[in-house]
Amino acid sequence: MVRSQFLLHIGRRWLSSSPNWNAASIRQLRDLTGAPVMECKKALERCDGKLDAALGLLSSYAETVMRKKAQRSTRSGLIALEVAPDQRCGAMVEIRSETDFVHQLPVVQRVSQRGLELLLRGAVTNVQELLEALRDELREAVAKTDENLTVHRGIRLQVPDTFRDGRIYSYLHNHARVGVLVACSAPSPLGRQVAMHIAAMNPQYVSAADIEPSVYESLMPAEDEAFRAPRQLGAANASPPQRRSVKFEAFIAERCLLDQVLVTDSADERSRSRQRTVREAIGPGISVLAFERFAL
């Protein structure tokens, strides 16, 4: 609303002295709205050269363009992230576009930065609220890029208050195509390396205690009835079962972050007889609380 009022104010100042329009008027209107040249010309003709009226007309045009382009496939885009100065909170947003070069344009960068700002402040709590809050920015970006743009997802990761020394670490990889936020219970010199590891290995769980009971059962032998007893894995004192199948051991080594071999170790460290897991690398007294990974 504030942006629209500002544009109307500027438009009135530019064309209040003359009701006629020319090439400069078209250029000014195009700079303000991002609409095609012919659409700007038609709007000025219909409004007798009055920029404020033409701006209102092109606003409805932009809404129509957004609805038409909404059916187009968006397989490219960018991932943007930001961590608060105190490292207690982080935000990540995924913007989808039709082609892979559009995300480099300033108008699209403004959409992602505005989304991160809203998420960090806690002004939005889900994707629908984020889309509604970014509606004006998205409309401008669609008009200027002539592509379908949308906010695919966004998250806010915060360290719980019970962990006073907790920190958020981040990593952006492969030209903003993979992004990671990870929360640790205390400052760690390996925090960024853990985020890089998550980007490369794509774990599904922090530890075996986070695996759903149905997944546990599918990984154990059918005759192991003792294992199939009811369990409360979501509780704070939950722990993985003592009896594990070979299939289960392989699963947690592949899917659980703390049990994966740290890929960011140097070549000398990887050549040791026993490679370090993420749990061993971060050391005692520090735990990974949660992580989020976005990938295009």
UniProtKB/TrEMBL annotation:
The keyword Mitochondrion applies. HAMAP family: EF_Ts. Associates with the EF-Tu.GDP complex and induces the exchange of GDP to GTP. It remains bound to the aminoacyl-tRNA.EF-Tu.GTP complex up to the GTP hydrolysis stage on the ribosome. Its main location: mitochondrion. Keywords: Elongation factor, Mitochondrion, Protein biosynthesis. Belongs to the EF-Ts family. This is Elongation factor Ts, mitochondrial. NCBIfam families: tsf. The lineage of its organism: Eukaryota, Rhodophyta, Bangiophyceae, Cyanidiales, Cyanidiaceae. It comes from Cyanidioschyzon merolae (strain NIES-3377 / 10D). GO terms for molecular function: translation elongation factor activity.
